Amino acid sequence: MKNNLSLYALAEHKCSIPPATYTIAVFQVDPVSWDRDMQYVQAVEGISSRPPPRKPRRLPAEVEKVKLFIGMEYECPRGHRFFVGENGEPLRLPKNSNARSAMSRESDDVFLHRDFPLRRQCTCRKLPVQTAQLMRVHVVTPKAPITVTVQPAVEIPGQEGFFGTGEGPLHLSWARYYILQLPFIYSGPSGVWIPPVGVERVGTFKGDAIQ
């Protein structure tokens, strides 16, 4: 089942960390392939015209790690926006903390495998309480030759199958900032989906969409 989920990049050559709360997924990579491929990355980026200095030989147990920045952004009818962590709850900036360090939450790949509700209660303080809907998925790919793909699937109550892009996995370039824009209205063979009244969690953005 196809709808108008769309993916676009915010940067042509350089990218910066999104100005919002995000979660960091950490991956381990093969050190031999890492050294070889990073030389290629440095050459493409023009970091240095000379080969990188020789590094000390690693022990067999040593591995390199790369970070993938991900943000699940919800928005309510009042325009309030917030991001959620791997537990599905809103991420909040602690008082008297450094914004840059406190806004990130380092995690393993559990964040990538879990399902997220399509609609949930907003963080609004003003009554009546509003329902927020998952509208954007932010992805900043590592500045390293790591393959990252996106294949979203949204499950809606009363609708057959899943909503997706109608295409195969979308391959993302390294060192780029992408945003997956989700629709507000979903329509399929069963008709237009009208969200129920209330703040209960409804619908599912399926896990393993980003690999």
From TrEMBL:
Pfam families: Smg8_Smg9. One of its GO terms (biological process) is nuclear-transcribed mRNA catabolic process, nonsense-mediated decay. InterPro entries: SMG8-like. Keywords: Nonsense-mediated mRNA decay. Belongs to the SMG8 family. Involved in nonsense-mediated decay (NMD) of mRNAs containing premature stop codons. This is Nonsense-mediated mRNA decay factor SMG8. The lineage of its organism: Eukaryota, Metazoa, Ecdysozoa, Nematoda, Chromadorea.
